[in-house]
Amino acid sequence: MMAGVGGGNDFQWCFSQVKGAIDEDVAEADIISTVEFNYSGELLATGDKGGRVVIFQREQESKNRLLSRGEYNVYSTFQSHEPEFDYLKSLEIEEKINKIRWLPQQNAAHFLLSANDKTIKLWKISERDKRAEGYNLKDEDGRLRDQFRITTLRVPVLMPMDLMVEASPRRIFANAHTYHINSISVNSDYETYLSADDLRINLWHLEITDRSFNIVDIKPANMEELTEVITAAECHPHQCNVFVYSSSKGTIRLCDMRAAALCDRHSKFFEEPEDPSSRSFFSEIISSISDVKFSHSGRYMMTRDYLSVKVWDLNMENRPVETYQVHEYLRSKLCSLYENDCIFDKFECCWNGSDSAIMTGSYNNFFRMFDRNTRRDITLEASRENSKPRAMLKPRKVCTGGKRKKDEISVDSLDFNKKILHTAWHPKENVIAVAATNNLYIFQDKIN
Amino acid sequence: MVARGQKRKLHREDGGGGSARESQLQSVLDISMDKFLRDQALVEPCLLRSVLINNTLRQVQSEVRAQVESLSPVKIPTKLKPEPDFTQLSPPAEHNASLSSPNAENTEDDFMVWTSEEDFSLSSAISAILKDLDAVIDAGQGPCASQRAPLRSVENLTPCPLRTERTSAVASFAKTELMCPVRPQDAALDKLLLDIDTSVFEPELNLLQGFSVTADDLVKYLPSLSKSPSASSSSSLVSNGQAMWEIQEIEHVMDILMRTYPQS
């Protein structure tokens, strides 16, 4: 039995919870489009195609249930974005939430940024568990009292009430993106953040909504000459002047905002030379980077392209230091995957809290984890069949040819409609959230 | 008469792998064009997807161009002597008779023994088609795409008798097509398809009618490139004169490029 990945040799992943409808018929609006833990891991936010945000909060660990960590329960649900219509271009703007990013917590309230294709919103999520009673000027039901009838003064008293979680939009950052927003990233200064679309990257101040700085613009003068677009961008976790952005040609550019106001010229350029023996018509498409993430340490970054995950040392530009094959068995199927559009799927990737392991999704509701130290990898499945409480997840294997062993699944039997594009790893513990279409699975390690 | 086997061997450098490559080339071309056209129909296609598909189409285009270029320079030096049996402008019936042979290999041989001037002109016609394809791709990226005349490469050729015939034939198509009201960004695509489509499917088509190209039309056409030449040539066996024969030549050449060369 393969030892687990991510926390040592005695490690096993177990099912914890699943959120979402069991229906076979999935409503398009319920499809989860982004998943993100906050900085402490206490809150887990999801965004969906219907423009809604659902936040789960972990309950306090119960002393009675020693064998499991606290469960995540719904904390707040709100409609973040509504469908809009651009009358000038006769275009509908989708309400789908592309990205959610939490701000570090600075007071009792929680703040997050949510973005659809065109607009970013800053939401404040705050709790209210007390209510003032005994006002002088109004009745308990809110009606104003007749001032001539007030003969005495009293001090209102705070009384406990049922917990109410309120989400209110505090800032709306709009009208700065002509193309579709693919990334947002909060800067380590906690004052600014960047947003990236296909051709431009803008820098915002969290307090200022009516303007932003454009820091990268790759739009050519003649759009016919366009051959490359921006696919993802992220701020460095510690150096507030550094950010990276990836492209559809498999390159990553690191930029320093101190060097120039416009960062069209990169400071570092990361690209792996192509292997000429594996060149095909699809080489460029599969090299397109769908996600880029800095390690928590800030020393490495990880990129996800269609078939692999690569770890780069920021000090070495000419090739990645580690490459992990996610589903190499798909290389011979690229023509079919091009035909059915699966080749354009954008998979995300994430680090664990200690940067010792990485995780990414695949098809058939499989997801993969790689341990960077032991070089072990594991394939697990998010499915309702394995959803008994604390049930251990069995490693899955794809048979690439020849004799199929028991419990293996052949490449041709994979369900390409069941894709895991979004995953998140708790910042401190071995708890992971995996979005499988309209269901959110939470897995955790078995406490020995 | 040039020995049939010899010439074929000159082109068989990539051996058996070439056939797989060609069939994949055909598939990728078909799929890419289908996606390209579907995306053009959308109000706001995804930019990343459009760029990737366009780049793939360009890659296919350059591969086809490379194959065309590898054909023409080799033929010209070996076939400078006029062939009494295969002068240009042989009557259509005679030529069609040779094309209608049910044996795919024989029809290939007939293709092979065309004169060097015909080959050169054909290559140029193919280049013109490829340039139109280029214009289609460029037109898809913005409303201000440059419109190119479909005959440019043919017109730039050194004069030869066959070219005159062919130019006039294609020119007649071009003139009638210019009368058709089309949107600017569809014009290049329409020109491309007009050159090919009418000859294969609707020889009697009234070109003065405005026509719109649908993805189905294109898909209907493109798979026919991979049919055996005997089938396609027999189905298009109509004695419609030189113009029809010339357009069929172009189609035939595309067909040859795309499908498997038989073992010699």
From TrEMBL, chain A:
One of its GO terms (molecular function) is protein phosphatase regulator activity. GO terms for cellular component: protein phosphatase type 2A complex. The keyword Repeat applies. Keywords: Repeat, WD repeat. Coiled coil: none annotated. PP2A consists of a common heterodimeric core enzyme, composed of a 36 kDa catalytic subunit (subunit C) and a 65 kDa constant regulatory subunit (PR65 or subunit A), that associates with a variety of regulatory subunits. Belongs to the phosphatase 2A regulatory subunit B family. This is Serine/threonine-protein phosphatase 2A 55 kDa regulatory subunit B. The lineage of its organism: Eukaryota, Metazoa, Chordata, Craniata, Vertebrata.
TrEMBL record, chain B:
It holds the Pfam family SERTA. Residues 1-10 have a biased composition (Basic residues). It comes from the Eukaryota. GO terms for cellular component: nucleus. InterPro entries: E2F-SERTA_domain_protein (IPR052262), SERTA_dom (IPR009263). Residues 1-23, 79-106 are annotated as: Disordered. Residues 21-68 form the SERTA domain. This is SERTA domain-containing protein 3-like. It comes from Carassius auratus (Goldfish).
